[in-house]
């Protein structure tokens, strides 16, 4: 892993921090092993079933289908029955973006579901590719006979023993609802909510579903129903004379067999999709690094994230320092001087941030930096020094190397820069803009993103434009891919610090717009890729700290600036709340 890697970075954050870059949390919808408000259904069970039904249309004979997000277009079918599916669709809606596919969100959701209820950690590989249409039928139904079920799983890529394991590992959570299968579970006429009969006596991801089946105490209606036609779990479980079920009677075997078979389930993708390597937890991670303008000032911002063992006390004396090199002038690439920002205080995440990270035994400590940048010197690369202040020598984090003079984290260009805090979004519902984007529920609202980009003097661009993408759209009727030109706008934003400002308006109806920003110059095109627009002028403002410079060749680095304090942590939830409030 070398920073930056937008896809790895975003997938890693969603899996291990459980949230998108503005703090909106996916994991908190499911963790800790939650029941849904209203129906009291198991959210993790709904999410796991959603993933299975998306995968179930895989056809091993021609390599089509699999975990590809097609489920969202297949919810009307008898095989994909039930409110749980629709509610799950709503849960996932806001999380896909240009580098995180809807199918990857479904896979991550399933992994969180299993882990938060006490199941194994299923390794996650990313890179699933979404389809934008429904596929053929394929999910098994309870009235199917054994031959049909066996053939259905064969087509998905699983033999008989694997079918038995997959069903047992799925049917350890959740149950059957009266609303969906009134013949199996009689409704309660006195309740608006469906009656749910769980597959086993616990909500947890454990092998009770197996042991209760084997000892004859099971409450699983797909086994016990007097209507033998609907007893699909009985047919499946006893297909090999119960031998596979007996092998799952050992609790540890159940966990490891389920990890393996669910890994295969989630990694079942169309033949032409290549998944990434496993997305592992980064022990030290740079996030939100950006050279930009805030309040008429060129600033460089970055956050640095370290893991902290839950069962150990965090070192309150630790200091983290950001260091960087100039891009131009006498000290170019730290030839003469290195700049430093003051060590910042520790801002800790809740250990519940993601069930995966919690199960691994960690939570996160974050260090946020904002420093002013003199545009004549600019910045070429940065890195971090972590000092425990306990007599041990500091650790340098230098993009893959922890000592010596590594490559640093690069600031790859300073020619064209998005300025989120100078940009803003208006939500309009007067219909005048909605000709372009009307969602399929007929709701006519549009978000107008007025984006501001700074272009460095000397670039003289023939064109400044964004490629705008949003895939987080209710019910996923289509993706928004728009190209919008930005025009020089000295009236709105006077030139400043060697930069001229360009503005343009992107229309969107989705929940997660990102842009690739380009400035086309005669020699080359400068690009800032995958710039997120989740906060814009709602970004909590933190005044830049002071800067100290030291001779690059040695000496203790003393510092002079005030720390940033806790303002980020206290502001972010408010901003996220405001954003979700306007998410219609
Ligand atoms: C023989 C194949 C299968 C059949 C016929 C089947 C059928 C069913 C039925 C009828 C329900 C009740 C749904 C409702 O009442 O809304 C259900 C629930 C569920 N199924 Fe399956 N299933 C099969 C395989 C699987 C597999 C392989 C998995 C995942 C690995 C899975 C995961 C689930 C989960 C988690 C639930 C509970 C959902 C909830 O409580 O909201 N199923 N299944």
Automatic annotation (TrEMBL):
User: What is the main EC category here?
Assistant: oxidoreductase
PROSITE patterns referenced in this protein's UniProt entry, alphabetically: PEROXIDASE_4
Q: Which Gene3D superfamilies match?
A: 1.10.520.10, Peroxidase, domain 2
As recorded in UniProt, its EC number(s) are 1.11.1.-
Q: Which InterPro entries match?
A: Ccp1-like, Haem_peroxidase, Haem_peroxidase_sf
Keywords for the protein's UniProt record, in alphabetical order? Heme, Iron, Metal-binding, Oxidoreductase, Peroxidase, Signal
Q: Which Pfam families match?
A: peroxidase (PF00141)
Gene Ontology biological process terms from the UniProt entry: cellular response to oxidative stress; hydrogen peroxide catabolic process; response to reactive oxygen species
Kindly indicate whether the keyword NAD belongs to this entry.
no
Under Gene Ontology molecular function, one entry of this record is: heme binding
Q: Which residues form the Plant heme peroxidase family profile domain?
A: 10-240
Q: Record's family? A: Belongs to the peroxidase family.
Q: What is this protein called?
A: Peroxidase
